[in-house]
Amino acid sequence: MACFFRRRIAAQLGCTLQQPEDAFIPALAAVPVFKKQQSADFKLSIATLRMSGILPSSGDIQLQAESLAARLKRDSVVEDVSAGRGVINFKVNRKLLVQKVLESFGKEEEGQFGLNSELLNTLTRGTTLVEYSSPNIAKKFHAGHLRSTIIGNFIANLKQCLGNNVIRMNYLGDWGMQFGLLGAGFAKFGCQEKLKQNPLQHLFEVYVEVNKDVEQNEEMMQAARAFFSQLEQHDSEAVSLWQQFREITVDEYQHVYKRLGVHFDIYSGESFHQQQAQQVVQKLQSQGLLKTSEKGTGVVDLSTAKDMSSVSTVLRSDGTTLYITRDLAAAIDRKEKYHFDEMIYVTDKSQAIHFQQLFHILLAMGHSWADRCEHVPFGLVRGMKTRRGEVVFLEDVLDEARARMLRNMNQSKTTKETVNPEDTAEKVGISALIVQDFRGPRESDYTFDWDRMLQAQGDTGVFLQYTHARLHSLIQRNEGVAAVLFDPSHLLEQTSVPVLQHLLRYDEVLYQSAKDLQPKHLVNFLLKLCHLIASAHRELPVKGSSQDVAQARLRLFSGARSVLANGMKILGITPVDQM
Ligand code: ARG
Hints:
By secondary structure, the chain is an alpha/beta fold. The chain folds into 3 domains: 91 residues, Gyrase A, domain 2 (2-Layer Sandwich), CATH 3.30.1360.70; 256 residues, HUPs (Rossmann fold, 3-Layer(aba) Sandwich); 155 residues, Isoleucyl-tRNA Synthetase, Domain 1, CATH 1.10.730.10. The protein has 21 helices and 16 strands. The model has no long low-confidence stretch (mean pLDDT 93).
């Protein structure tokens, strides 16, 4: 579809300017649709052609556009060519537009629309390891962990649909002094019964209690240190308690992740790398990279002048390793085990320096693949609260989203007959959370707002789901009418053409998303699609139209539904069929 037209335009440009046609593909883009039908479908950026050296970079850009536009032919595919501001606009034959877009709905397998694109084929494919979510055992699952979970899941889904081999990894905070506190605290405040009944809640309670206790109670602090050192020396009793904490935590999380539609191939964690971390320290030493600071800690000098003006601490003065030391070991281990071509870490932006230092040290150690490691940072969420107060567990947010959505559904007359309202409310509630989170630039902070995100109208996840459910029921009601053959001339209306024009951008949107790993492009594309579908739905009735008009319209709606559904799945949203 989009490729057909892009190729065709590129071929003509290639001929006219005596250049390989591929050189023009990056400069061609589908024109974004605003409200009404757009007169142009594609535009060519003159600035891009100047940058790539195809056109001289001196001279008036407007004159260049005009003179090139005058040299291009109009034909049965490209009906009109005109110079705009710094661009050349192309209008393709309307019937062909309808035909090509609708054809590709049918030809390509469900879920494949737009993926067979020369633009997407320029992306490198390989093994991508995405590390996301990564909560800390016994601590809060805060908004940052929720963002990491859904953004990481989006990136993994996107990479997978673009043909990469994706490894999804959760790197638990399952090591460190907090386990000394937890182990010692459990002896005093813990209860096996409660641990079985409500593991996350109980571990958190114990952790809070013991933290209060150590403030007045020096003995407790000693017990905690003793427990952690037993753990480090692999004392079997300490290890088995720690293992129990870890296992029940992972079990609980798996259950909640399932509700969210998220899964992991590997549950790793800091604990896996404590011994390797010591080996990393030795390696740093033998490479001459380990320095001793005035405080007696082991550091790596990161300054360009090599004057210790910027250092990263990798060893405490008591010889124990730190978060970054374990991350160094973990990265090296993952490269050896999974041979990734790229690795992506998704955490809030406060860890940006940590990851810069991590990659810097890896490179200094000679691991050139650290260049293909990327930290994907995101901003903070303000005010994520439930009726019970501050959020401690992921489950609380999901429960609240479901409850609020269920109430909204009950208040609206149209949703009375939903078959499984709880399940629908859960899926729609989660899509509301996701869309709220994905609308803006990833690095921006935002304020969590239950009422706004759950609005049925407006740019919300509820609106996406509502549109999907509506299309689904339209298609179901008219099952008998659908046909493979259709006449494109029935889809040339003011409200149908913009839907098709908009769909021409789908591969560009995925391309852009793969480049900058921002979910906002796809979310905004889908929201726009839903607005265009709403107008088309209003003005192009299926019921009461003649058979061939009805067939053509249904074809448009069912194609749009499948693109919407696929896009939603990439975002990590499960489309509902009714609500
Ligand atoms: N557990 C950490 C936290 O909650 C996040 C881990 C991020 N990943 C990493 N490889 N350091 O802050």
